Fold this sequence. Notes:
The chain has 210 residues and is an alpha/beta fold. The protein is built from 8 helices and 6 strands, in the order αβαβαβαβαββααα.
Amino acid sequence: FLNTSWGHQSYLLRQEFFNAKIHSFTSPVESILITFGGTDQNNLTSKILDDICSICFDYKIEINIVTGGGYLYINELKEKISSLLVLKRGLKINYEHHSGHISNIMEKCQLAITANGRTIYELAHLNIPSLVFSHHVRETTHLFAHENNGFFPMGLYDESSSQNLIRLMLKLISDNNFRQEAFLKIEKNSFAGNKKRVLNLLNAVLKKES
């Protein structure tokens, strides 16, 4: 492992994120993103939607949902969205499956709820404080999603998660100072120099081997 480099200082963002507009702090929260990676094997997308739809309705917050190419619950999710839109007139939900450019959606979101994978680096680059759930125990060992970096690690989703999520989301929505503090912590992270850093590491290895 001495010759292995990993983590946010070695992660190479796709070009779309360098072309995207990086957030400045704004208030109020107008839009939130729910996305849980390529497969979302635990269908956290649906569970989180249930948890936050009433809050978003009350505070007039638009919900943006993005699912990946391996997501198996598309029809059930579409039915749930349709039911919620009938039940709560005025609720705004946008849904995209296997979005080609998720950065376009992130650009308009002030908060996100996501998994503890590569997406958190993309959210960090765009300055989006996020609540982070892990799909499995291994993901809980990914330590970048920490309050020191403007993220709120929620652990594995269990019977207490709904209450904890609602409590924290309400605080982020209603307490501008609390959300701004998270924003300033996430704002310090930069991925702009990672490509050069990785190339320098590779060149150093090649020079050593030659």
